[in-house]
């Protein structure tokens, strides 16, 4: 019965359970809060580490890109230097220009890409190595060409010296030969002698008569000997006959075969008649030349000059008179 009269004991039991529940909830919330803050701190630290790692990666990529760009610049400068220093190398490099341009374009394309990966940079490094290898090959070929050029230059010097020596000998021999030929040529010039020049009057039935009266002369008959010459070869020889009138002018009638010839000293002169003589070596030979003209012969002394090989080889005269008892 006494027990039933203690209500306080029944009131206190629910109150105690309520206080414990709040304590548990508070503890749970506190733990959750601490866990949240811990996660936030952990996440922040992780993000910081990732950012630092990413930053390091970016720095590493930028450093690699800069390094590769410098290597490409050095290779390009060396290539340009090879072209500039050696023209022959520039010609040789033209055959590889397309290949080199393609390499450079691929490398530059990778280096311009700000998002280039490590694999791409490794590819650029490999391509730069290939470009450097090409340049090394060209440099070696240039060095070889220089050695070859040096050897060729030395050979050329020897050959030039030999050529100059041979030319001197040849020129000396040629000079001697020309001098001998000149001596032979001059020595082969014929000589004319025993001149006889007469005025001829032509009569009926082909009869002729010598006359010294100018107005009766129809033609001049010029006779002379070509003296023997043992140097002159047998064969046709051109003889130029120059007849000068009493006033000293050469008789020249183009319609009758007159023309011009050049003397040994280079002077151009008129000839009256050209005669081709079949000369026999070492023998004296008589030559007869006749000259008729389309005008009357003048009174006075006519001079006849004979030329061969550009030289005056003989001359004679005839005096035609104005009248006489026996013409």
Portion of residues in beta strands equals: 15-25%
What's the number of domains? 2
Structural class: alpha+beta
| Annotation field: number of helices | 4
Short overview:
This protein is of the alpha+beta class. Helix content is 53%, strand content 23%.
Report on this structure.
The protein contains four helices and ten strands, in the order H-H-H-H-E-E-E-E-E-E-E-E-E-E. The protein is an alpha+beta fold and about 325 residues long. It has a four-stranded antiparallel beta sheet, with no helix packed on it. Helix 1 packs antiparallel against helix 3 (about 95-110). The longest helix is centred in the N-terminal third of the chain and has 79 residues, at about 5-85. It starts with 6 loop residues before the first helix and ends in a 7-residue tail after the last strand.
Key descriptive features of the protein:
single chain, 327 residues, alpha+beta, Immunoglobulin-like, 4 helices, 10 strands
Describe the protein's topology.
Elements: H1 7-85, H2 87-93, H3 97-112, H4 118-187, E1 192-202, E2 208-211, E3 219-226, E4 235-244, E5 259-262, E6 268-271, E7 273-279, E8 285-292, E9 300-308, E10 311-320
Antiparallel strand pairs: 1-2, 1-3, 3-8, 4-7, 4-9, 5-6, 9-10
């Amino acid at each position: 019965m006494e027990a039933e009269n203690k209500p306080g004991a029944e009131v206190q039991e629910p109150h105690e359970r309520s206080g414990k529940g709040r304590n548990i909830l508070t503890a749970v919330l506190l733990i959750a809060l601490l866990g949240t803050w811990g996660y936030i701190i952990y996440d922040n630290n992780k993000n910081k580490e990732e950012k630092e790692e990413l930053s390091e990666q970016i720095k590493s990529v930028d450093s690699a890109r800069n390094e590769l760009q410098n290597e490409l610049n050095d290779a390009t400068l060396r290539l340009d230097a090879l072209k500039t220093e050696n023209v022959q190398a520039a010609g040789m490099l033209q055959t590889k220009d397309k290949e080199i341009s393609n390499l450079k374009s691929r490398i530059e394309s990778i280096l311009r890409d700000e998002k280039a990966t490590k694999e791409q940079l490794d590819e650029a490094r490999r391509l730069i190595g290939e470009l450097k290898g090409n340049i090394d090959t060209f440099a070696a070929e240039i060095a070889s060409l220089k050695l070859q050029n040096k050897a060729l230059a030395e050979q050329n010097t020897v050959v030039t010296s030999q050529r100059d020596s041979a030319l001197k000998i040849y020129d000396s021999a040629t000079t001697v030969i020309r001098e001998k030929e000149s001596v032979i040529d001059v020595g082969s010039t014929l000589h004319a002698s025993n001149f006889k020049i007469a005025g001829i009057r032509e009569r009926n039935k082909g009869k002729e008569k010598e006359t010294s009266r100018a107005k009766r002369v129809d033609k001049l008959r010029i006779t002379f000997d070509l003296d023997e010459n043992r140097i002159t070869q047998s064969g046709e020889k051109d003889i130029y006959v120059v007849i000068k009138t009493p006033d000293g002018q050469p008789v020249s009638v183009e319609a009758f075969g007159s023309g011009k010839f050049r003397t040994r000293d280079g002077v151009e002169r008129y000839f009256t008649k050209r005669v081709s003589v079949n000369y026999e070596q070492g023998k004296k030979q008589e030559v007869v030349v006749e000259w008729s003209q389309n005008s009357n012969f003048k009174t006075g002394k006519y001079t006849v000059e004979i030329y061969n090989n550009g030289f005056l080889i003989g001359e004679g005269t005839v005096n035609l008179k104005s009248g006489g008892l026996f013409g």
